[in-house]
Write a structure and sequence with these properties.
- There is one protein chain.
- With 113 residues, this protein is mostly helical.
- It has one domain (3-111): de novo design (two linked rop proteins).
- It is built from 5 helices and no strands.
- It has helices at residues 3-22, 26-29, 31-53, 56-84, 88-111.
- Helix 1 (3-22) runs antiparallel to helix 5 (88-111) and helix 3 (31-53) packs antiparallel against helix 4 (56-84).
- The chain is elongated and about 40 Å long.
- 23% of the residues are buried.
Length: 113
């Protein structure tokens, strides 16, 4: 499986977390949470045209370029989560996002070797 396809499989976790946040009642009450879901969406959107063209080089380049913002959104969500809700759904969303982003980062780091 190519690096691009491996990352795209992990993006499904990012998408599900973003969708969970987007449809949560808590989103309306917390602008920082809104920023997190917007950043997650922006990361996926940035990869879309390269994915559609199946251009792995452009995909990896864009994934690396936007990784810092994805990582920051993940850290922000982990920090906000206990204040927003201690419900297990939020806890698992944080864990899922952290796992996916760590794996994406590892793949991107290996692509530089």
């Amino acid at each position: 499986m190519s690096l691009m396809h491996r990352i795209d499989a992990l993006i499904s976790h990012v998408w599900m977390v973003r969708t969970f946040i987007k449809h949560s009642e808590e989103l309306e009450e917390d602008p920082e949470l809104s920023d997190v879901q917007r950043t997650l969406y922006d990361y996926m959107l940035a990869l879309g045209s390269a994915w559609k063209a199946q251009d792995e080089e452009a995909y990896i380049k864009q994934a690396k370029k936007k990784l810092g913002k994805l990582r920051q959104a993940t850290d922000d969500f982990a920090q906000l989560q206990p204040e927003i809700s201690t419900h297990m759904n939020f806890q698992m969303a944080v864990r899922s996002l952290q796992f996916a982003v760590a794996e994406i980062e590892e793949i991107l780091n290996r692509s530089s070797e």
